[in-house]
User: Fold this.
Amino acid sequence: MRLLSAVPALAVVIIAYNLFSFTGGMFDAESLLFSWVLPSEAEVFFKVGDLFVMAGLVGLFFEIIKAARAGAGAIADHALSTATLIVALIEFLLVPFCGTTAFFLLLIMVLIDVIGGFATSLLATRRDYQISRDGNL
Assistant:
């Protein structure tokens, strides 16, 4: 169970995006899933990529909760999140089917996860380790 909680939720979403796009199914990230008309008569278009963005937001929520806990696995979690960011950035720049707005938003979510995770850990560490003005712990 610990192994599953160590895997970044956003990495799972990016892997799912890659599998979905790489298999070349009948949809791509820009394919329209459905649309509806609001009472204001504006039409809303929901694409496949939007589904991945929604999944990414849910994953980001769980990653923020994981970053708030302190423990031995925090360093591994930060390392895996950073690796996910590097892989996602390389894919965004070099892989044609990852050059979409939906994937870019997933990349930004991973960046927020990495920066937020490190910031949360630093703040928690600083709170636990305080030095008084006279130099005593």
